[in-house]
Every structure is written in C-alpha cells, then in structure tokens.
Amino acid sequence: MKEADPIFEILRQRLQGAQKLAVVGIGDELIPPDRPGMYAAREVRKENLPGVQVFCAGTVPESITGPLFRYQPGHVLFLDAADTGARPGTFTIIGQDQIPANLLSTHVLPLSVVMDYVSRESGADVTLIGIQPDLTLSEKGMSDENKAFLDRNLQLLSEVIRNRLALTARI
Length: 171
Fold this sequence. Notes:
Blueprint: H1 7-15, E1 21-26, H2 36-46, E2 52-58, H3 65-71, E3 75-81, E4 91-94, H4 111-122, E5 125-131, H5 144-162, H6 164-170
Parallel strand pairs: 1-2, 1-3, 3-5
Antiparallel strand pairs: 4-5
Helix pairs in contact: 1-5
C-alpha cells in the first residue's frame, strides 16, 4: 500500500528497528471528539502485531506507566485527539514542545509532562500522533466518510508498525 501523506515516512524512520513498541491510546470515550486515540489504539490491538503492546489509558495516561515500564519498550507511540484544523481522521506528529493549547485535553497531567516522564524513566523514544476529530458531529463522533479516512490512515499506521523490523533487516 503506497501512501501519499509524508507522516507515514516520518513514522517509518522513527519506528525503524524498535523491537518492542508500546501504543498508548488516550481519550475520553464518553466525549465523541475525544475518542479517536482510544479508537485507534483498539484498532491497532486487533491487528495483533508482533512486538507490540497496546495500552488503553483513557483520560489518565500516567496510570499506565507501571505496566508500560515493565514492558520495556524501545519506542512509545501515544495516540490522542488533537484539533489541528485538518480533515477529520488526519494524523499529525506533535512534538512534546509543540503540544498546542488547542489540543483536546481531558487529562489530569499535561500530556507533555507524561511523555517527558516516560522518556526519561524508560529510555524509550516517544512520539505523539494527534488525530483530528470531527468537531461538526459531536453526538455521532465522525461522518462515515471521515471514519473511512481515519480507518485508511489506521491501516497505513499498522503497515508501518508491522514493517518496522523488516526495515532494519534490509539496511
């Protein structure tokens, strides 16, 4: 599957060679615009990818740090809703120092603090993927068209995760 969005090439580079990958879904499933991170994590879990552990943190991402540290990942991929103004279902890599004020946040601690703590204490690389929610359909969550777009991006993400070890073998 060939993707046009450069985010997937950036993710390929970031995840390359990560023997153990932790995927952390974040969000409040009772609030439709805050669901994308949790939805994405559950979809990745369904793929049953080797060397991948999925953690569904909900609104308290710091609550999974114990199990996360025991897993000892080389890379932690955080998935959360982020209003970047893009098309609903769009993925954006957001640096810890670039977490915007308009990031949809229902978290107890700022996500940048959690990411810094995880990185410092585990030695793992961390990446935050912000997923643009559909803010026009607050009750339903996403239109069918936008959900299809999100699902396409999740397929591409799963492909990148699946192939992260093959990339090292070819180099």
